[in-house]
Amino acid sequence: MARGPKRHLKRLAAPHHWMLDKLGGVFAPRPRCGPHKLRESLPLILFLRNRLKYALTYREAKLICKQRLIKVDGKVRTDMRFPAGFMDVIRIDKTNETFRLLYDAKGRYATHRITGAEGNFKLCKVVKKAVGPKGVPFIVTHDARTIRYPDPHIKVNDTVIIDISTGKVTDYVKFDQGNLCMVTGGHNMGRVGIVGHREKHPGSFDIIHIKDIAGHSFATRLSNVFIIGKGTTALVSLPGPTKVLNGIICVHIPAVEGLNYVKKRIVEAICEGGNRSIPEIRLPVINMPVVEAHHKSQALIVVGWKKQSDYSLHPLVIGEPFRAEDIQIEELHNTGNFSSGVGIFGVNNGCDQFDDILSYGWLNEYDIRIKLGHSTTDGSNLSPVKETCDFKLLYILDHVTRHKIEELLSIIETRYKKLSFELANVDLQSQEAFELSRKGPLRQRILKAPMIYSIVLNSFNPPEFTLTLTSIGETETFFFDFVREIGLNLGIFMFNHSTFATCCGIKRRRAGPFDDRHSLLIKHLSVRNIMLNMARSHKLIDYYRKNVNSNVIQKMDEINIDEISENQLTEVLGDLQEAEVDENCIQMSFDREYTTINNFLVIFSKFFLKTECYSFRNFISIFLILIY
């Protein structure tokens, strides 16, 4: 039986944030015992070989460390397996570079370059506070530092600022509401936001609610929160763009194109705009050896040095910051390629809000175009025709009229309304059923079950007609079957003739509070428009979340999109004070003064411009007469 600590680590069992390729070998470098845990650290060999590309092999990384060129928190580290962790400062004096290990927007360690002045300090989270032997108070930080005689006001979960050269505490930041923090664990690792309220659960984990800069709120455990700034100002520079593209967006789905095409265009717009917004990286210049063969022994020797750009940091080598595989996008309503209209999509963590949105019971409004006379294999007019009928004969016999279609639709609507009461376990003859029906349609108890609340016949132009249908939990297949049943119920079996119906188009006009005014067109997809639409969608969802009724679906009033934009601008520019401006004067810069003009002259000038019957000389003469 083996004894002692483990000495090996399989590559497949290594932490995912190391980003090791699966086919690169069997084993991965196992970190030594140090100040950080194995799954929360990054060995120096991976930092030099996989991230900076300063070493190409295991042996080269070992030689670099043995030359005492690498310093971690001001101390030389010769072990290439030393575990560097969160907030550690790595300095390479030979290249005059300083790095700080921070999590990026995807929860992975980023090689964040910092200045030499910023590398003189680091932030540490207090994880323990106690009193040692002889009554000496001390605190323990997240990187295993023990600091004696700290400030009495420093508590657990606070952040202390430590001078790397001396190891002393220079300042501290309290764990309070309104301070900037970074999540260091859990599903939201790498997200930056403002600390909100704290939920205390005795005997369990305390939950902290955080709000990021995009206005989205999320919750995580107390142990995962690391304070990095006072108020909204960070004490350290953060790596790249933070994870702010999380939320719900509304995009118009074009006909025939389908969901996959729309999702692909959204991802392309995010990646293209995000990569364009990041400034171009200036490649550092390094010295490369010039190697030639010896004229006698043919051995390779270094004959000189040349300066060239370090292509290890080039985007073609390390990839673009925004990549399609890193962006998660899902749809709220899984319609097929035949449907079009308003579409709700979740981006990244916005997909987690779908369960709550479905529980609200938002009603969807559709326009369905139907054509009588033939039947297809799947119910749409794009598939092959399976059966046909003589529609003219049925129309002459007065069996397909507007009145009969409306009568059939009212019967279907009544049956669905009765079904909604049965699913809610409410007796139709009771007072409870009357009170619920008076308030509005009943809310679905079974999520994603199709239910129709209203059907209206909009236009009737035989053999085509259009329906406006309000439903919940519908699918494209449900609509095809619904249209087929309408056609069969309208027909008669006479002279071997019957009526068939085919769906020619499905357009979603409204999805809960979202309609055509809130949706983005494909040609308008950009990072700026997506983030603006995401902010508007967040305000809409918050507004309707406050008016949710557990039993019935209340009719939602329409909100003008201009009001949402005005509220958003008011929040940003609310601190600006408008100067008092006289209505009859003009104020401009450059110390110019303008006298007040008589109201009569203003009216007269407007009249002159409208009539166009006066010459310029007549206007000047009349103007002088009025003045004098």
UniProtKB/TrEMBL annotation:
Task: Supply one GO BP term.
Answer: pseudouridine synthesis
Name the GO cellular-component terms: cytosolic small ribosomal subunit
GO MF:
pseudouridine synthase activity; rRNA binding; structural constituent of ribosome
Transmembrane stretches, by residue range? none
Q: Which CDD domains match?
A: KOW_RPS4 (cd06087), S4 (cd00165)
Query: Where in the numbering of this chain does the RNA-binding S4 domain appear?
Result: 42-106
Q: Which InterPro entries match?
A: PsdUridine_synth_cat_dom_sf, Rib_uL2_dom2, Ribosomal_eS4, Ribosomal_eS4_C, Ribosomal_eS4_central_region, Ribosomal_eS4_central_sf, Ribosomal_eS4_KOW, Ribosomal_eS4_N
Q: Which UniProt keywords apply?
A: Ribonucleoprotein, Ribosomal protein, RNA-binding, rRNA-binding
Its family remark reads: Belongs to the eukaryotic ribosomal protein eS4 family.
What is this protein identified as?
A: Small ribosomal subunit protein eS4
